[in-house]
Structures are given as structure tokens and as C-alpha cells.
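queue> holo job accepted (iron/sulfur cluster)
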Amino acid sequence: MAHVIIDTCKKDNLCLDSCPSEAIRPGKDEAAWGTVSQLYINPEECMDCGACVAECPTNSIYPAEELPADKADFAEKNAAFFTN
Ligand code: SF4
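queue> job finished
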């Protein structure tokens, strides 16, 4: 499993520095940052360490298995960012 970011993300980008596997994208220096409404976690890179959770000021990061029921589709949405 991996951690997942939901749509309450405000793109503060505070989580990126906490991630030991650089699984969170896009960074502010990437062109995609200006076009996305939130950040995403690559499920292929995430080690499920949980370090990013405490850094998020909007409590927008969840372990995939603990996503609120109405946000369950965000596991797929996070993965899709890295496959499109
Ligand atoms: S759980 Fe750990 S590895 Fe996964 S995105 Fe958060 S900081 Fe990165």
C-alpha cells in the first residue's frame, strides 16, 4: 500500500522535503505544478513511512487503507498522475 493525498491539499509543498523517496510530485520547479490542483504520491515509490502526514497543514494525506469512504477514489487519482 501507499499513502494518498486528497483534494483538500493546498499545494503548500511542505511534505516534499519530508519524503525520503521523492514520491510526492510535482515540485514547485516542475511545469506541472502550475496546472494541478493538488499534489500526488507515486504508489510505486512510496515506502509508507508516514513522514509526510505530520507535515501537511491541511491533513490531506492518508494511508490508502484509511482513506475516508468519500475519498476512496483518490488512491487511483494519485496513481494516475504518474501514468498519464
Ligand atoms: S509515506 Fe513516506 S515515502 Fe510515502 S509519500 Fe509520505 S513521506 Fe514519502
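queue> The longest strand covers residues 3-5.
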